[in-house]
Amino acid sequence: MEIKEIIAQFEEKRTEFATDLSCFENTTKIESVRHLFRVSSDCSIVLLDRDADFVKTVFSKYASVIEILKSNIKFNQEDTFHFAIYYVDGRHTLTKDIYEVNGLNRKHNDNYYFNSSLVRSITWNVKTNYIGETRGKSRRSIPLRVNQPWTHKPGSKHMFLNAETLRQELMVQLMETAKYYAVIDYLSELEQAEAHMKSVSRYHYAEMHVNLAWRDLLSAKSMKEIKSTKWKRICALNVNAGKMNVFQLNAIKNLRPYITWEQTDRIIQALRNGSGYSTDPRMFAEIVFPALANDNDVRYDIWDVLKMSKDLGRRVDIHPVTHKTVTNLHDRVVVEYRAYQARQEYAGEKNNLKIAEVFQPIVDAVSDDERYEVITLATELIKEGAAMNHCVGSYIDSVNDGDCLIARGRLNNERVTIEFKYDRKEDILYAKQVQMKHNQKPSQETMNDVYELLDSINEKEVDYAKYDWGYHGARRVEADEADFVLPF
To answer: DSSP class of residue 121?
Structure first.
């Protein structure tokens, strides 16, 4: 489709997208809807998070207050709303400006207008195929990535936009209409990823993230061209045969620092055989290695094996993957890792663990409870692993990265180590692991004490049992029972 045709389609569609604001007709002290929102006449106004009736109600409420106070007024937080305007900027640029409305003002002629501020501006240069965004007052444009929202909501690396949501955006509809085949392919692969997310999710969403910008999709002839560039080495493997979507490729890429190319071959084969996946390397490992072993218990040790081996400067290659080989490898790596940690210097500030703010309620709750002690030093975490004969000493980076909080407890005459985690989606704290020495299972009374502590912190009722990792006291395997390879 030619540039002129795309722009013509945009002009036609934006009027269809515009919110019907006819409820403001014949409203006193409003010069026009355009003046009320303070936009030019060639723009289409789209309400993003409220409907027209809500906006009219808010207007009427605050207009009556202004009549009494004779001054401008700021909205309460619950009355704030957002809108977008679509227009053509120059000859080749399609623009979507997003505003937040947080007040109502009155002009010198007594006509009202909304007080608004620009939140984001998204532009598509149809000639260069560049889609970028500017935020707030900044004039610096950055490429808009495929996982970032097209609304007022802030984006993040962990955000996932499904195909249905993207297809509701006017500019994405234009891309499909204009036959940008890489965009069409991406949306199709996104639907595949959504189906897998539902099938592999245990109690978290399965993270799906890919480092792609919209300009990458618009500039490529197809997804195949993008894959052969961004994931060149993985696509070159014979076992791949071009069957994987971008999320599977990114899942493998993120796990590659931990595994050999031989292990990569086997993982690709597992994906072709129907294994689930996630672009988060830990979650992917805990999905695909059990699939390779046909044994779900493999997931309990595999991430610790991968993480500790990486710190030791090794890539893991386990063949065959079985519960025995993984457990035996875990025990051997733990011994080497403790020796490695003993050689590390944790002096001064480096010894202080960085406790994430989300875990501060736990720190406060146990400060006066002598049964618990939050571990705040790296050396203490190493000592805890040695004393309890498990691998909590390898969790220093996890604590510093804000992924977890480790505490030791003495409950019901049982000495335990507790790993606390935070569920972003549910906004609650929970215990992923409560382990005695040798990873033995504590009593139910001890588990109940931990749950009571969490109940005193969380503001809603939580089924903590479903968050429990469930791994306790796996049988140790002798070296001559296992068949594995661990390259140096």
So the answer is: E
Q: Amino acid letter at 221? A: K
Query: Is the Cβ–Cβ distance between 360 and 328 less than 8 Å?
Result: no
> How large is the average pLDDT for residues 192-197?
82
| pTM listed for this prediction | 0.71
Written in H, E and C, the secondary structure of 69-108 is HCCCEECCHHHCEEEEEEEEECCCEEEEEEEEEEEEEECC
**CA distance to 303, 406, 465, per residue, from 432 (Å):** 14, 10, 9
Degrees to nearest 5, angle at CA 469 with 394 and 344: 5
pLDDT at residue 67 in the model: 87
Q: How many CB atoms lie within 10 A of CB 17?
A: 16
Residue 285 tokens read as 């490992």
3-state secondary structure of 114: strand
Question: Do 205 and 161 meet the contact criterion of CB atoms below 8 Å apart?
Answer: no
> Using CB atoms within 10 A of its CB, is residue 368 exposed (0-12), middle (13-18) or buried (19+)?
exposed
Q: Convert 261-291 to b/e letters by CB count within 10 Å (16 or more is b).
A: eebbebbbebbeeebbbbbbbbbbbbbbbbb
Q: Are strands 81-89 and 73-74 parallel, antiparallel or unpaired?
A: unpaired
The neighbouring-strand residues paired with 414 are: 411
Task: Report whether 5 contacts 13 (CB < 8 A).
Answer: no
Average pLDDT over every residue of 440-462? 94
Task: Answer whether 171's CB lies under 8 Å from 239's CB.
Answer: no
What is the C-alpha separation between 182 and 218, in angstroms, rounded? Answer: 7
CA distance 37 to 55: 11
- Per the DSSP assignment, residues forming a β-bridge with 122 are 96, 133
Render pLDDT for 464-483 as a digit per residue (tens, 0 to 9).
Answer: 998 988 776 644 333 444 34
Q: Which tokens hold the place of 276? A: 């689930």
316: helix, strand or coil = strand
Single-letter amino acid code for the residue at 398: S
Token pair 């305007």 is at which residue? 85
Alpha carbon 103 to its chain centroid, in Å, reads 33
Burial class (CB in 10 A: 0-12, 13-18, 19+), 364: exposed
Residues 6 or more apart whose CB falls under 8 angstroms from that of 372 comprise 366, 407, 408, 409, 418, 453
**Structure token digits, residue 346:** 């944790």
